[in-house]
């Protein structure tokens, strides 16, 4: 990562032993390890947050572009002229239904004056015993 070899790490350890002494060296190494771990975790957290933001921005940009494209397509559909003019409607019943049997001339029937059919008289509804009696 930084290009530090084993011999350079050994040299740093010897200098630390001479400067700090054998009593304080284990505590200093533990503290240095904790600080290095905290720095690594914070750098990784910042890196993940930046990647998440970049990914979120990318997704937002994609969604925005797709929305603009869909609006543009809808506008083209609305504004484009109709390709085929409407055809006149022809009566279908006359041409498509052929008579199954040849019509034969029927004998003329005498026309008699017809009377209108008598209208049925509604029968009175049965009387409900819970209601008061009806007037005749």
Automatic annotation (TrEMBL):
It is found in: Cell membrane; Membrane. Residues 81-136 are annotated as: Disordered. Residues 105-136 have a biased composition (Pro residues). It is a single-pass membrane protein. Pfam families: TatA_B_E. PANTHER family: SEC-INDEPENDENT PROTEIN TRANSLOCASE PROTEIN TATA, CHLOROPLASTIC. This is Sec-independent protein translocase protein TatB. It comes from Pseudomonas sivasensis. The gene is tatB.
């Amino acid at each position: 990562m930084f290009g530090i070899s084993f011999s350079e790490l050994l040299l740093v350890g010897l200098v630390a032993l001479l400067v700090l002494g054998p009593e304080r060296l284990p505590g200093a190494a533990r503290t240095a390890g904790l600080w290095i771990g905290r720095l690594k975790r914070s750098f990784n957290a910042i890196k993940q947050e930046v990647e998440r933001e970049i990914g979120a921005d990318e997704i937002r940009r994609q969604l925005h572009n797709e929305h603009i494209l869909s609006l543009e397509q809808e506008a083209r559909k609305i504004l484009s002229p109709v390709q085929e003019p409407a055809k006149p409607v022809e009566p279908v019943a006359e041409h498509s239904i052929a008579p199954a049997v040849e019509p034969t001339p029927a004998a003329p029937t005498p026309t008699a004056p017809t009377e209108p059919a008598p209208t049925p008289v509604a029968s009175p509804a049965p009387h409900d015993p819970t209601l008061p009696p009806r007037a005749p």
